[in-house]
Amino acid sequence: MSLRAYLRSHAVRVVCSVAVVALLAVMLPVVGVERGATELVMLLVTVLEVTGLVWEWLRGRSFARGLARLAEGEEDALDVAATLPEPDYPEGELAWEAIQGVVRTSRRREAGLKQQMQEYRRYVELWVHEIKTPLAAMNLTLANSHGEDARTLSREVARVEADVENALYYARSTSVDKDYLLRRCDLGELARDAVKSRARSLIEAHVAVDLAGLEGEKGLWAYCDPKWMTFILGQLIDNAVRYRAVPERDGRQARLCFSASVEGTGSAEERVVLHVADNGCGISEADLGRIFERGFTGTNGRTHERSTGMGLYLVRTLCEKMGLAVGARSAAGIGTTIDIAFPRERSRAV
After folding, report:
1. Which residue segment(s) compose the domain that 130 sits in?
2. Strand partners, 328
3. Shortest CA distance to 320 belongs to which of 183, 186, 180?
């Protein structure tokens, strides 16, 4: 708080002090006090009043600055409140104790919420582990079955497995713990693993996959968690299949291309950018800026197969946890490209 603001907030006291000095100037000569003595008394009273005001301002200035930081809201409110200096005047002490009480209550609630989140996550992981057993049994049974009904049921089981996987990674994405292990990975191997995990849906949808952009190049490696990155690429493949081009409608065969480029070679900002491009229906300009929001489905999600709006949200969330940048380029009716940027230095990726 500035001195001017402090004086404005204490305007009544300032006016009273000025009034006291003015009354002394009038009354003392009336009762026979000499001019020199009157001026000395007025000076002493003025100095005492000004000193009192300035001392009170200086005493509460650090606490007021802390309150101003708290009011601005640019920093974590609890951290700012916890570091507020304790004032040494009654009103400030009462306010400080009240704020610290709020901090303690908030910390307890935060700890409780973290505990609930950890319990929820453990439950989801246990549920995923348990549900895999009947799903594996269903897949084994279907592998020995033939006919259109078996193929249809097999596709539905695959969709259930994908949804189960999404639930697991969503639970992990909301955890404050680091569940990932960054290590040097070959981008070509990651792409091939992701394609293998979605081979059935790619074949059934007649989507041609092009990995030539990741073959025969040196230096196409980056630090990431391979399991998380395979899941991320799997989500991008699922979207490419869901919003693929249909020859009868679009006049072109559905394609999915993986490629990579190195940017800023030799500099501190050197990074590898993985490009996952499809030639599907594309994304409208109005929707492009929101595709990474949780639950956003957009125009395509309403006109194509069922969409939860969670796939790209998980992609962005998991990328951010690993220190990766993700972006999208698209044109309606032409296709979509997802770019994932990997810092080349491990210390920058953590």
Report:
1. 116-160+162-173
2. 338
3. 180
Q: What is the pLDDT of residues 15-45, one digit of tens each?
A: 888 888 888 888 888 888 888 888 888 889 8
Tell me how many degrees the CA angle 115-116-121 measures, rounded to the nearest 5. 100
Whether the per-residue pLDDT at 210 is higher than 70: the answer is yes
Q: Has residue 324 been placed in a domain?
A: yes
DSSP string covering 188-237: HHHHHHHHHHTHHHHHHTT-EEEEEETSS-SS-EEEE-HHHHHHHHHHHH
In a domain, 15, yes or no: yes
pTM: 0.66
CB 341 within 8 A of CB 348: no
Element (H, E) at 336: strand 335-343
Question: What DSSP designation does 180 have?
Answer: -
Cα–Cα–Cα angle for 57, 60, 61, nearest 5°?
Answer: 75
The answer to whether 256 and 208 have CB atoms below 8 angstroms apart is yes
pLDDT tens by residue, 89-113: 787 888 888 888 988 899 899 889 8
Is position 97 within any domain? Answer: no
